[in-house]
Design a protein that fits this description.
Elements (H helix, E strand, L loop, with lengths): L16 E3 L2 E3 L6 E3 L1 H12 L18 E3 L17 E2 L3 E2 L8 E5 L3 E5 L4 E3 L1
Antiparallel strand pairs: 1-2, 2-3, 4-5, 4-9, 6-7, 7-8
The structure holds zinc ion.
Length: about 120
């Protein structure tokens, strides 16, 4: 059994016990979801989140990729052309599916979607 249950957030009682998905404090009767633990468990698997490129290769930090289709870039007449090589990518939990943090030659730092690149 888990002997490392957190103390009660209400009264700091240490006699917390588990009741299903809830933690219960017998001293003040407070019940709360064991979210802390669930979050911690998710954190453990967070590192294992798999990000794949356009053809299904698993990407990892430091990979070099090429852009598979021309991408529009604000302020650039040409955009990023298909075939542009991007070195040393970093996988991030980006907004709107932009899960690659990288620096594109001639454009500077930006975020790309993994679906528009292919691992070299
Ligand atoms: Zn309590």
């Amino acid at each position: 059994m888990n002997e490392n249950l957190p103390p009660c957030p209400e009264c700091s009682g240490v006699y917390t016990y588990e009741m299903g998905a809830l933690l219960v404090c017998p001293e003040c009767g407070h019940e709360w979801p064991a979210a802390g633990e669930a979050a911690a468990a998710e954190g453990d698997t967070g590192g294992a989140k798999v990000i794949k490129d356009a053809v299904g290769n698993v990407l990892s930090d430091g990979d070099t990729v090429t852009v598979v289709k021309t991408l529009k870039v604000k302020g650039s007449p040409t955009g990023i052309k298909a075939g542009t090589k991007v070195r040393n990518i970093r996988l991030v939990d980006g907004v709107d599916g932009h899960d690659i943090d990288c620096k594109v030659d001639g454009f500077g730092p930006m975020q790309l979607k993994s679906s528009v690149v292919k691992k070299v």
